[in-house]
Amino acid sequence: MNQRFVPGTVEPVAARAYRILEHLIVTLQLHPGSITTEGILIERLGLGRTPVREAIQRLAWEGLVEVRPRAGLAIAPLHPGDWLRVVDARRGVELVLARACARYITAESAQSFHLAAIAMQQAVVGSNVLAFLEADKMLDEAMAVTAENSFAARVAAPLQTHSRRFWFRYQSDAGLAHSAEHHVSMISAILKGDEERAEEEAARLMTMLRSLAEAAALR
Length: 219
Prior knowledge:
Number of helices: 9
Strand content: under 5%
Order of helices and strands: HEHHEEHHHHHH
CATH superfamily of the largest domain: GntR ligand-binding domain-like
Number of strands: 3
CATH class of the largest domain: Mainly Alpha
Oligomer: single chain
CATH topology of the largest domain: Four Helix Bundle (Hemerythrin (Met), subunit A)
Radius of gyration: 17 Å
Shape: globular
Largest sheet: 3 strands, antiparallel
Strand order of the largest sheet: 1-3-2
């Protein structure tokens, strides 16, 4: 479930369908609370019934889509208060992943973290929210592989997706630099193999996200 797509390789069609649908949901192109159908999504993606159906099943398991027999597919609504619940559920597992990544980082896996940090910084310079989301996902996928803990990675993945969706809806352009700073600080600790600092930076990142969630809940 958490394997990264490596450029230059052939991505499974079902995985591609999932990536596209996840992106459409996270960026609200599939509007929260809206109703669609499997047929509409198949036509939109042009990838065939089986891979789209597999992607829908995965999204349903993650709580992003509700399959309603004979009534279509409901895109999960966005309730600001739920962001707090997502962050609280996510905090512990992110600390586990950050510490494990610092412990198991290699020269090969370090490249993915470097690329994520650079992409985040470039997104800030260009005020490109979509590019930042892609960089954030790149980082999450790098952590899922590097931590060597598939149990923690499987717990974290859907929470990360929900969090990105809330962040896209409620963040401001001014918050890009602040968010990138926290992410890059954690990446730096991981690359240095500093387990304690990596855990501390992950905790700071989660605290920052919770403050954003609290502000969103009060709107």
